[in-house]
Amino acid sequence: MVISDLLNSLKFNDQGLIPVITQDEGDSQVLMMAWMNREAIIKTLETGEVHYWSRSRQALWHKGATSGHIQKLRHFFYDCDGDTILVKVEQVGNVACHTGARSCFFNAVPLSLPHQ
Hints:
The strands form 2 sheets. This protein has a 4-stranded mixed sheet with strand order 2-1-6-5, with helices on one face. Strands 3-4 form a two-stranded antiparallel ribbon. It is built from 2 helices and 6 strands. The relative contact order is 0.21. The chain is an alpha+beta fold. The protein has one domain (3-94): Roll (Ubiquitin-like (UB roll)).
């Protein structure tokens, strides 16, 4: 498959973005969720390091470019509907979250929340 065929297979939202789930290749932990546009996908596949689209900065974002916690691309998948991407990465430095945590998903909700 060539990159243009891949891009044509994906369903971007009205802002030209597609959600991306990032998972550790080694232990399968979900590290983060972010967004990619066409440029981020192309840069990711061309460089082997994950790039995202920052909605807050409205700019391409090379994950780890300033912190050193880059994500080395190991696998790139998209779902059956073509509307979500899954990347499996080698997380350099073992930190994926801007808070300094390994994963952005550290807020656990008790399954027995009381009703009010």
